[in-house]
Write a structure and sequence with these properties.
By secondary structure, this protein is mostly helical. It contains eight helices and two strands; from the N terminus they run αββααααααα. Strands 1-2 form a two-stranded antiparallel sheet. Strand 1 and strand 2 form a beta hairpin. 28% of the residues are buried.
Amino acid sequence: MVETQSGKNPADGKYRKPLWWYIGLVVLILAIVGTFIPGIVKMVQDPDLLHQPGLADFFPEALAFKGSPFELNRMIIGRIVAASAAGLIFFLVARNVKLLPGRGQALVEMLLEFVRKNIGVELLGSRRGKRYATILSFLFVSVLAMNLTGIIPGVNIAASSVMSVPLVLAIVAYVTFVGAGIKARGGLRFFREQLFPPGIPWPVYFLLTPIEALSTFVVRPATLAIRLLANMIAGHMLLALTYFGTVSLLAAAAALKPMSALTLIASIVVTLFEIFVAALQAYVFTVLTAVYIKMSVEAH
């Protein structure tokens, strides 16, 4: 049976799922079977192992190189996995680009086109939108990948639920919109327009300039980082509580065991909601970055 490069069967006009789709599905199932299910069974058999969600979740124990700058814990491993997976996907797609894309290439192109058109061009105009599409796409994919580690069995916590990751991404966004303003307006002119908006009586600058400096150079990057951090912390705690409730009820008296079905259903719903929040926060982070670029390149 002949199949085109795009994965489409010319005989019936239907698409066949590519090999990477099946491999990814098998890996996901094996990860769930190998980590999540045994973990629940073990905690049900030994309730003393039951872990109550709390702040300790965000400071996991070291798995290797404890006390060194290269210390590894499950959260850091999640970051490495997320970054490696995102990089590998884009590498595989880029090295084998086809005129008639397969599903993998089509999905990547759809994602990049969404960021370029619906965020970059929509907020910054055609010329600037295309210019900053690369960095906006990088931020979107980075935030999304780090957020999704919260639902990976064995990691179970988003890499962006501690300040280091949101802070690094916020610094990247900060350098981007400040650099965009300096490039578009000139260094002195950019800082003058940001700190001393024209058309205002000069005595007012004694009050307005510190506020503008704080707003532009502190509040903007801080809100990017804190918003992302707070949402991912809340998502993790909600998800952890539903799973904790399920295991607790399974380990409780026989009369309470049937109630675990409700918390199990709730945990599935919350997991799906967490995926939605992960994508939404990536979108919000990228949109706000584009808005700050727009505010930097345009005069007050």
